[in-house]
Amino acid sequence: MTTQSLQINNVEFATRGERLQGTLRLADLPRLGELLASKNPASEQAVKDLAGRQDVVSEVAFQLGGEKDAMDQYILHLSIQANLPTFCQRCLKGMKIPMNLNFSYLIAKVDDAALLDVDELALGDDVDVQPPDQAMSVLALIEDELIMALPIAPAHDFSCTDVQKMQSGDKHNPFAVLKDLLKS
Q1: HEC profile for 57-126?
Q2: N or C: which end of the chain has fewer CB within 10 A?
Q3: pLDDT at 113
Q4: How far apart are CA 176 and CA 184, in angstroms?
Q5: Which candidate, 44, 60, 48, places its Cα nearest to that of 98?
Q6: What is the spatial distance between Cα 179 and Cα 176, in angstroms, rounded to a whole number?
Q7: How much is the CA Rg of the chain, to the nearest whole Å?
Q8: Residue 134 gets which letter from DSSP?
């Protein structure tokens, strides 16, 4: 899939009820790649190495659908699935962040007056506004949403074993010998 095919006229796309789906490589998302690399204290090369591992899928799958609803509003629905390679900020070991994201966008002209009316459209809080665009970049939209969903300090959901050992006091205490001297 070429990046040129990822530019759409969003009003026409929604009017025709079109669907677009595909996969992107992390190399197609350079701003996201920079953020993933910045989470690694060692180097950017380590993120590339992690992305090449068999157990970490380094592709981003997406589905974009358009519709014109009963109120003649143009709506886009975006779904993104990815496993982003990064590093745990507690133990500094490689990990993946699973992403399963869903977004809805109302295509409308955005100005100060229109922002006040968006709440009255009964679309809910989970709908964002996108301006009409004859060459909207789906690639940029996907990358923006992934960047915003990326945790600031990624960490394992479980306790990292190396960090847990250091915090639990399992290490040898050099002053333990003095404790025995006090008893005598």
Answers
A1: CCEEEEEEEEEECCCCCEEEEEEEEEEEEEECCCCCCEEEEEEEEEEEEEECCCCHHHHHHHHHHCCCCC
A2: C
A3: 39
A4: 14
A5: 60
A6: 5
A7: 24
A8: T
Q: Average pLDDT of 148-162?
A: 81
Listed by start position, the domains of the chain span 4-159
pTM for this prediction: 0.73
**pLDDT at residue 116 is higher than 50:** no
Cβ neighbours of residue 71 closer than 8 Å, sequence gap 6 or more = 121
Backbone angles phi, psi at 16, to 5 degrees: -85, -5
Its sign, for the CA torsion 66, 67, 73, 77, is negative
Strand-strand pairing, 94-107 and 127-130: parallel
Both tokens of 106, joined, read 């109302």
The encoded tokens of residue 105 equal 């966008």
- Distance (Å) of CA 62 to CA 72, 77, 128, 146: 25, 10, 18, 11
